[in-house]
Amino acid sequence: MAGTEAGAPTVVGARAKKEKEKVPAVEGWFAPGGSDGAPPTLLGSRCSSCGTYAFPREQLSCRNPKCGGTELEEVSLSRRGRVWSYTDARYQPPPPYVAAEPYRPFVIAAVELAAEGMVVMGQMTADTTVDDVIVGDEVELVVDTLYEDEEHEYLVWKWRKVEGAPARGPKSGVAPSHPPGPDAGDGG
């Protein structure tokens, strides 16, 4: 058969669709995971002097104003956390933000990473609305497409609710001004 190599037929009149290269929308803020099954992670830094974490990672000195440390190690941050606060983005953010066309509103969550003692902002997955979120929900880090062009698929980290995980906290988009103490009970 003409146009075949090693028995593979040639498709006449069809163009092979080129696979788009997947690249981070913001270089160095997260590792998207790999084909080897490695999970995605946010890339932060940890001060060797005081243990303070930072995201995005610091390059020069510790963010803790009480520390003068300059030895910072790159670390992978926790992949799971709890929703500390959230809102929705009904209107398309201005440049330099790049959104897929047509623009679709999305949920933004501030997620507390307990092990690091910090809060990281990020979009929730597209299947999540503000009616689906409760302060205290457990979420996990995933990688998803922010937008595409002719050659690239630009990736960002997003938060996805952990199915079956119990929610903690009131049904509101605002975190309590301070967490309840160990003797606070369940409020009932």
Summarize the structure.
The protein has 188 residues and is mainly beta. The protein has strands at 21-24, 30-31, 41-47, 53-54, 72-76, 80-89, 106-113, 118-124, 138-148, 152-161.
Structure description:
This protein has 188 residues and is mainly β. The protein is built from no helices and ten strands. It has strands at residues 21-24, 30-31, 41-47, 53-54, 72-76, 80-89, 106-113, 118-124, 138-148, 152-161. The protein has a five-stranded mixed β-barrel. It is globular, with a radius of gyration of 21 Å. The N and C termini lie far apart (78 Å).
Mind sketching the topology for me?
Blueprint: E1 21-24, E2 30-31, E3 41-47, E4 53-54, E5 72-76, E6 80-89, E7 106-113, E8 118-124, E9 138-148, E10 152-161
Parallel strand pairs: 1-10, 8-10
Antiparallel strand pairs: 2-3, 3-4, 3-5, 6-7, 6-9, 7-8, 9-10
